[in-house]
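Q: My labmate handed me this sequence with no annotations at all. I'd like to see what the chain might look like in three dimensions before we decide whether it's worth expressing. Could you predict it?
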Amino acid sequence: MVRVRIVGREARSEQGGARARAAERGGQARELRFAERDWEAHVAAGDVPPEALVFSLQLTGGLWRPARELPLYDFFRRSGEEERREATLPRRRFPAFADLPRIAVPRRGLSVTELLVGANLLVAVALVIAWRGNYTTRIWDVAWSFHQLLLRDRNPVGLVATIFMHADLRHLGANLLALLPASAFVEYLYGRRVGWVYLLGGLAGGVASYAFKGHGPMSVGASGAVYALYGACGGYLLRHLGRFPRWERWRARRIYIPLLLFATLPSILHADWRAHVAGFLGGVILGLVLAPHARGRDLLLPD
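A: Here is what I predict for the chain of 303 residues:
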């Protein structure tokens, strides 16, 4: 059995028990009684203020102690306050990300995700038609030429062009399979600025590859840009995790973050890992500094 004696703020010292009895004799105190198993529920409901005195064989060892000094009191109380605050907020019409397919593949017009996938496919088709059986040889000749152009003339055109070029069809297919979901989520969270995340993250990867690899050819492929998209999702979680509703916070920790790690860690150190790591870190920074789209803000609690 738990006894909770609720008195005025004067019962804050170690002599609170005597003062509480004096206040009770004056009609200023009230007492609650409930089972130990209901302690968390009563604290979360706001029935036990911090200055209340608590007596319990299990919780307080048979002594009268202020509620605020008991283990996990503040945690239970804040959880209850947060739950009540969330209950007053307008409910979303749909679960989180339920309209993601409509954002990535709209009925009218083109999403940036579709434009990015289309640009990679268009470049690949154009180069296959132009080079045919010499595709593999010619792609690396061009990559060497871009490297020499940047090294000799400081012309950065290759840093942009190679973001949309791939070593072969297998390389293209793997990158597009990773690009599609990553770009869809970033477009959901940040709107059409997903294009800037792709370009800036790809540039960061290209610059890191050129600066730290120490030799040619120029790195080709959308991998750095794709890792930037995953990094932007990570930046969003880092910045806003504390503002997620309780259930979404649980899903972020148990589903979103593990999926992000599963999508990035196994391959981030493969192939040109410098471009991968730089692209991912660039995406994280962009995710931290960019203001979310209205859809991204809709997932969060008000400040």
